[in-house]
Amino acid sequence: MIYLPIVRGSFLLPERFMCIVILAVLISGVASAQRKVAHSSTPLQRLWYTKPADRWLDALPLGNGSLGAMIFGGVDGERIQFNESSLCTGSLDKIGSFQPFGNIFLAWKYNTDASATAYRRSLVLNNAIHETSFKKGAIAFKRVYFTSHPDQALVGLITASKPKSINVEIKLKDVRGEKLTEGTSSLFFQGKLENGISYAACLIVKAKGGVVTPTDSSIIIRDADALNFYLTAATSFKLRAGAEFAAGENPEKLVRARAKRVSEKDIDKVLTDHKEDFSGLFDRVTLKLGDGPDKPTLQRLQDYTQGASDHDLEALLFQYGRYLLISSSRAGGTPANLQGLWNNDVKPEWYSQYTTNINIQMNYWSAEPTNLSECHEPLFDWVENLAAINRSTSDNVLKTSVGWVTYSTDNLMGGGSTWRIHRPGSAWLSQHFWERYAFTGDSLFLARRAYPLLKELVSYWDGHLVETSAGKLISPDGWSPEHGPHKDELDKRPYPGASYDQQIVYDLFTNYIDAAKKLKIDDGFCSNAERLRSKLLGPRVGKWGQLQEWAEDLDDSTDHHRHNSHLFAVYPGRQITLQQTPQWARAASRSLLSRGMESTGWSVAWRLNLWARLADGEHAYAQMRRLIQYAESPGQAEKCGLYANLFNAYPFQLDGNFGYTSAVAEMLLQSHENVIHLLPALPKAWADGEVKGLKARGNVEVAMRWKSNHLVNATLKAVRSGTYTFRYGDKVASVYLVANRPHVIDLKTKTHTQ
Ligand code: FUC
Fold this sequence. Notes:
Largest sheet: 9 strands, antiparallel
Strand content: 25-35%
Oligomer: single chain
Number of helices: 16
Bound molecules: alpha-L-fucopyranose
Strand order of the largest sheet: 1-6-7-8-9-16-13-12-11
Distance between the termini: 20 Å
Helix content: 25-40%
Structural class: alpha+beta
Number of strands: 33
């Protein structure tokens, strides 16, 4: 039972009274509560394997937000495939696609023919270090790789247990076949894409001892004691430059300067700066769901697929999503695309760009709740650029008299695939601006960036919605993404009042109204938005108890389509909640059940978030087990699952990984309607656990420990002093939190401590 310092429903009690209550509690139980809440330190999160990667999807990802690399870990022949986030074909008029950049090939030689023993390659998520180690005869070799954000370079540190044992030929190759130019200890290539984007890469080698010999196409290192190498890569892409997107900084100068700088910097400092930078973000959140077996990652995944229990693998995958976001999305850079930052194909699936009818948004669902707000920033920059371009477009399909809309898939520059217009895309993207404020409470961001965007889109929908004879406002030409109406049907029958459009517009109006009220501005405009929202055709429950996808009751209960568009209002929207609209929430569960558990990776991840938001931990957990399946085990439909490197399969899109991470956060913590809900969807399977560092809206950091499926204690730390309401089970209470002072609620001793 939870101790309630303030009686249920009394959220508005004066702060003075709260302080007195808390003070009384303080005196009674400080020490014991403090002792109990101490979190045990979480061991390093690690993926590890006992043989080199044969294929790209076995390799392990590194990334510093712009430079991404896949490490294969070969013993004799080694490949490092790399990307740079802005190397894209396409333009403002043509979608194009994200391009692979190049490869480093390393041909290693040894003084013995003995095969490698004690082989291991691993990726530590906490500090983003990849390490390959093995023995050849009596000599132990170690290769450490990381992509540094502070130094904007991929760094390789090669050592051996015996001097003069390092022998290798290093090649650097452009995917498009541009020729190398080189000095004595550097390799360099540059080229230009059709769209004018120039690119360049530079690799510098520093050997300790031994002999370094350049050839026409490589560098050969003989008998070195140790070897460091540094790779830099960049393009001339510039965001927010409109048609001048290719006219950014000269990449040749940039990569040469960066490579020189990092190669001359003290290597210990390079390493420490990298670790501090990465861990500074990663270690903000820890999650412990149980101990995992000490087995290679692929083995664990295969065992799990066969039905083994491994809660630590579930936690590892949660942290992997955070790892991938930090690695692919850093402030000042480009947003994580469909494959994050990792792509090996000249023609990747769906262009590996930004699809706005779920995928790009899903990439960022975890950013705020899992304490990576900074990593959300590239999305805002990209959206503002897209808005600027589409606002002034000459494309008749996109043109609007006020505001802007999107195509279904948009590229880095702000161009789109003309395959399908997607009007609510802009409103859905604007939700991220509101959420950024809701989580951080950053009023400057709200006033300067979120509010103008939201207001403009309210104006767009004010002009676009039409009134039915029954006095309801509907979107006249709606779509339930990729489900209907299809393109060939579209001209014949635009779909008025599709739930997807209606719910997103509702969400936009709500976010706008809340923003205007926070800022205390635009009363008249805000009242109009309230009036419009009240007239919107709302969710309806159909004949089999489902939440209708269409304005009419047309849903087929055997339809398992991958999109869950009519459930937007549940997640990521907030129109439907268990507390405020239980009938609709029930109908949403019915619809979700009928959609089934089988689908593509991102779809399953969305369903997982939906079950979590519906506080149904058991369905969420069942859906989670479906997601964590080895995609390549015999009999797998290859629709959804994970590859050996834990990338989400469909075929390969990273949205499923990111969506998984947000869902786990959502199972453990929610924060709607100004209530912080502790453990809202804890499945029975997670009997014991602890989490630290999750964020609730209002900028409250939350830690929790639970045992035998019951919360033991929770620590809330708010950035701003004030009264906060929290819920656990059916108990609701309010507490006054002093800024930056952890407030411990111990459910065993029924005490509060600050
Ligand atoms: C959505 C999905 C597709 C694919 C694409 C990138 O449109 O319907 O399945 O994931 O995004």
